[in-house]
Structures are given as C-alpha cells and as structure tokens.
Amino acid sequence: MAATKSRVSASKPSSEKADTKVWLYSLFLTLQYGAQPLISKRFVRREVIVTTSVMSCELVKVMCALILMAKEGTLKKLQKKWTLVGALTASGLPAAIYALQNSLLQISYKNLDSLTFSILNQTKLIFTALFTYIILRQKQSVQQIGALFLLIIAAVLLSIGEGSSKGSSTKNSDEVLFYGIVPLFVASVLSGLASALCQWASQVKKHPSYLMTVEMSIVGSLCLLASTFRSPDGEAIKQHGFFYGWTPLTLIPVTFNAVGGILVGLGFVIVSALLVTALLQFLFDGRPPSLYCLLALPLVVTSISIYQKYPYRVKKKEA
User: Fold this and answer.
1) Which terminus of the chain has a lower count of CB atoms within 10 Å, N or C?
2) What is the rounded CA–CA span in Å between residue 82 and residue 93?
3) Measured distance CA(39)–CA(261) in Å, rounded
C-alpha cells in the first residue's frame, strides 16, 4: 500500500512537469504563429533574396532538431540505423515540396497584410484533409467536413475582399492577388500534400519526426541550391552575394519560423495566434482589420475549433 502511494506521489511531479512543458510550448507557438507574418514583413526587407531566407531557415531547423535528438539520447541510435535509401524514400518528396512551399510563403508575406495571411494560411487544413484521405484513407467526421466548408467560405470571402481595390487600398489589387493570394493558395495545397506524405512516412515507415526534419531540411536545401543555377534568385546571389539585403534583425523571423516548424501546433494555439496577429497588426501597424477579415475571422476560429473537437471515430460493430 505504501509502495503504491509513493509511486502515485512520484508520478504527480512528473505529470505536472509535462503539463508545464506543454503550456510553455503552446505559449511559444501562439506567439510564433501570431507574430510571424508581422515580424517577417518588418525585419525581412524586400531586397532579401527568397532562396537565402528559406535555406537559412532550413539550416536552423537542422541544428535545432539535432540538439533535441541529442538531448533525448536518440541521436547515436538513429545514426546506426540510418540509410540513404530509407531517408530518400521517407523524406525526399516531402522535402522538395516543402522547399517550394516555403519559397511561395516568403513571396506572399511581402504582399499581404499579417492577418489576411494568417487567416488564408489556414486553408492548408482543407488540403491536408483531402490528401490524407487519398494517401492514407483517413476519413473525416461529418462535423469536420462542415468545418472545412466554413473554412472554404472564409477563404473565398477574403480572396474576393483582398483581391478587390476596396479590400487592399494601399496596394495594387493585381499585385495582392497574383503575388499574395495565389502563391499562398498554392503553398497551402503543397503543405497539405507534404503533411500527408509525412504522416505516411511516420505511420507506415515508422520514421521519427526529428530525423525527418533533419532529412527534409537537408534535401530541401539541396533542391533549392540546385535551382539557383538557372533561376533569378541564383543570378541575384551571384551578383550581390548570399546575404544581400540582410540585417541582424532578419535572423529573428528566420529563427522563429524554423523553431515553429519543428514544434507541432494544437487547434487552440492556431485560434489564439489569429487573435494575436490581429492585435499586433493594430498595435504596430496602426491598421485595424478590414471588414472582410472581421467577417472571415470568426468563421476560421469556429472551423478550427470544430475540426479539432470532433475527429472521425470508427463505429464499433455490435456483437
């Protein structure tokens, strides 16, 4: 009896410690998701070459993932089991997709206001659901399907609003549409596909998440590096140098983006982050949300909340 009591009392501090860690991660992710669009616009100058910021972000991801694996004590074990064929099979395609997606996001950051970007970026949930069903046959509940429709309505509403001259008074509407909204939608499609492929690698290939992060970052960087030989970014790097347009402050959004890419966000974190984005945009840019954002925001918040709360459950067959 005494032994049982001591075991219970010993487990309490560890569970409390785990809860504290979860809340700290959640708080960081809320701030990261919420502030990322704003700090990217403020600290990444328009002259910065997109490929250099994406490759730097991938390098920081590799460093963070290796540190976390070393801390967990799994680095040496995984090093013995690792094979090039296994790495390319599990991480090769998602890495190339994520590299392209990150480049499109960098373009979109510069041409949309922070809140519009954050709201439209949630459309990746639609494509993640679609591709996980196609690849893994992972079904959605009726409530989740309804939540995805709410998200589609919000995205259409914002696209019409921000793509019109009324929705984007400070910028040319064509510039907002073709360099802001379109790249972001394509990035969302790619994000959904890459997420589904990562889930497949995790569930079918039993590939650890931190190892996948390292592999995808390295492969993605190599893909970007190869693309620079015949691209405008490659020419710009040759002409001006890798860190053209960078300032010490550019490292802040790059590091934030990298760390946020390793940690996994929960639904309530994303909802809180949207509100943080709206608040920060008002405080730092003096811009209140547009009418379209005010209409779309509650739809997205409701959609994400419902989607997380009502996952698909397999019905048990009665005997």
Assistant:
1) C
2) 18
3) 16
